[in-house]
Specification:
With about 60 residues, the chain is mainly β. Helix content is about 0%, strand content about 35%. The protein has a domain of about 45 residues. Strands 1-6 form a two-stranded antiparallel ribbon. The N and C termini lie far apart (about 40 Å).
Length: about 60
């Protein structure tokens, strides 16, 4: 049981929308060409999401427009 939630419901009283660009991860794919072990491959290091700023969510209800 959590002291902050005396009812024990585990549901937040705030509404958040997952970022439509990164799916809530806070990072988007940023593949780069590379040679690894003599073979050409794509390395995905990722970069911060330009829409949500790495939080992965927006406050309130935000439709995907």
């Amino acid at each position: 049981m959590n002291d902050e939630d005396p009812g024990g419901s585990g549901v937040s009283d705030q509404v958040h929308t997952l970022c439509h660009s990164c799916g809530g991860a806070g990072m988007v794919a940023d593949p780069k060409p590379a040679v690894i072990g003599g073979q050409a491959r794509a390395v995905d290091s990722g970069r911060p999401c330009p829409h949500c700023g790495t939080t992965g969510q927006f406050p309130g209800i935000v439709p995907p427009v």
